[in-house]
Fold:
Amino acid sequence: MAKDRVYIFDTTLRDGEQVPGCQLNTIEKIEVAKALEQLGVDVIEAGFPISSPGDFNSLVEISKAVTEPVICALTRAVKKDIEVAAESLKFAKRPRIHTGIGTSYYHIYHKLNSNPEEIITRGVEAVKYAKSFVEDVEFYAEDAGRSDNKYLARVIEAMIDAGATVVNIPDTTGYTLPDEYGKKIKYLVDHVSNIDKAVISTHCHNDLGMATANTMSGLINGARQVEVTMNGIGERAGNTSLEEIAMILKSRKHLNLETNINARKIYQTSRLVSTLMRMPVQANKAIVGRNAFAHSSGIHQDGVLKRRENYEIINPKTVGINESSILLTARSGRAALKHRLEKLGYTFSKKGLDAIYEEFVILADSKKEIVDEDLKILAGASSRDIKRKLHLNKLQVLCGKGTTPVATVTLTWDNVCHSATAQGNGPVDASINAVKDILKTKVRIEEFLIQAITRGSDDMGKVHMQVEHKNVIYYGFSASTDIITASVEAFIDAMSQIV
Ligand code: KIV
Ligand code: ZN
Structure:
């Protein structure tokens, strides 16, 4: 059976841009509009041109820059608004005017100081006036979510008679339940005699976290256009997310509904909007959040590595994310560690992996997330460790302002355990003096370099050391979140080659 087409009406640049602090200039709006065109949206609502010269200008420039999607301008049911909208759309290849008026009890009596009959008359006049400028006219019944269904059906029938090609049923306050909103759409399908002459559009807000569910309920009950924004941005708690609807329809094939969205462009468009609007995407946001495809528990990581579908319903590549990320944390298991080490080019025997896993767990306990750089260090150290004659077992240091640094070192040298305590001018010096007391070998540290690997105070420090013995230079290296330990380990690494 052929699928029904769902039209994606993107209002990122109108409802989305109403968010305080998210305003874009014309150049930025053109960049977003072009990205939306590439993404495959059907309609771009590019602004409310009567509201400011900037909005007007953006509509003019977007109309010139974008050719495929319909370009839509919002108006109130006011003649001047409609004239300005028509003027702003004069370069659009496929212009649409989106006009409308409130239809709920609150809006009729307490916002517009009007009555139900006058509202219909004003709506009809607005649609007819808009129609005198453009063929494609969309009508919105503001606060339709809280409007009486019987009255709403009369309004919608009158607007279609007046020439509306699309009828928008906004849940302006995000109040309805999915079941209620779906029934509202069904009521209109069943009771508006000319409904076949227009497309029904959903426009849901997320005040109770139900925008996507309400939109889906609208589609299931007969709507065929959805008004959405990228990342779900919009007034208050936002609008329905474009990416959520696009991926629901792509993943749940039994619904027999399809869009023109090129899903592979979703992630890059999401990042563009987030960056330009200075509006971070919440980490657990469906489809585009940083954690949407990240697995951190050992059981899930093992499951995903065995077969992605065990814990993923969408292949991240489908939405333009290169691959799911296996986050290495203290909760990760050996399978995830082995997988990541192999990606970095390291292979270990079972025993070798066990040894590095032990080190990994200790490090992961002191650091929130282990990155590839950390692993390279662990893997490198672990291969060197296997061959080493000297092993540091314990290091205890007393230091701080007003105390003489003292260190006690316990190490194994050719399977024999040794301990020593020494002082120094700092904690590293005291520790190295203690090691020297045990090894009793004359050496000189030629170079000593400590560096942070990535960033943050929980980072690992890596230590490079050059130790001179009988005119030969030996290199030592180590890394740890404790830089004193890393320094002693680096010294021991060099000394292992000497003693
Ligand atoms: O939420 C709403 O009702 C709107 C209309 C202006 C379409 O944004
Ligand atoms: Zn809205």
In short: The chain has a mean pLDDT of 92.
